[in-house]
Amino acid sequence: MIPLRDDIPSRTIPWVNYVVIALCALAFMAQETSSDHSEGIVAKFAMVPMRLSDPTAVPVINEERAVQTPHGVEIVRVQQTIGPSPLPPWMTLVTCMFLHGGWMHFLGNMWFLYIFGDNVEDRFGHFGFAALYLGTGVLAGLSHYVTQPHSPIPTLGASGAIAGVMGAYAFLYPHARVLTLLPLIIIFTTIVVPAPIFLGFWFLMQLYSGVGSLVGEPVSGVAWWAHAGGFVAGGLAAFAVSRLPIGSPPVKERRF
């Protein structure tokens, strides 16, 4: 399911949301135009769980690659060493959330942030939203770290922080609705889904996949627990903020 828009109008200009999107775009462009094809940037600024456990560790990834040989395509096992970072490992919990692994990863994250971030910034205020984004992003990274503390695989992406924004949205706007694009094989249709159902389904998928990653392969290509942890942290933050006199008051939804 792909959200197209929600029915909650913004009362303020979400400057922080726009700045975050711009910073992620600049970082991604730097990755795409880097002469080392982004491996250097990822190695320096992504979060590697192994480094949090042991800052002196040298992460090495074992992977299989298809190689063309005179006898045809063969699968060979290679080792990739992750270069050192100029930052203390704990700082990469922040820098990693501005990097992305490809165009679909980047565009998908930014679209979800654009859809849900403006209304959350309304309620949290500009400085509160910045704190929410960074705080839930760090907690999301720690959620992934707890489940895979010795993983040498770099973790990157804004998904954990955006999950925090979505968790806050789910709590703050329980009556909101989301116009959703629903791909059905070769047919595309749109449906209106209550925000708690849309976001709740998304959260359950992350939780289900996270549990699967624990009982299956020890190392997953997607940080499912970062998504789930960020979502819960965002919901708890919204619960706390709803008791404080900050940001704009809730607004009534508009109709599609």
TrEMBL record:
Could you tell me where this protein is found in the cell?
Membrane
Per the UniProt record, the source organism is: Allorhodopirellula heiligendammensis
Its transmembrane ranges are 12-30, 90-115, 127-147, 153-172, 179-204, 224-246
Q: Name one GO cellular component term.
A: membrane
Domain Peptidase S54 rhomboid per the UniProt entry, residue ranges: 90-243
Where is it predominantly found?
membrane
One GO molecular function term of this record is:
serine-type endopeptidase activity
Q: What is this protein called?
A: Rhomboid family protein
Q: Which Pfam families match?
A: Rhomboid (PF01694)
Q: Indicate how the chain sits in the lipid bilayer.
A: Multi-pass membrane protein
Please provide the record's keywords in A-Z order. Answer: Cell inner membrane, Cell membrane, Membrane, Transmembrane, Transmembrane helix
Q: Does the keyword ATP-binding apply?
A: no
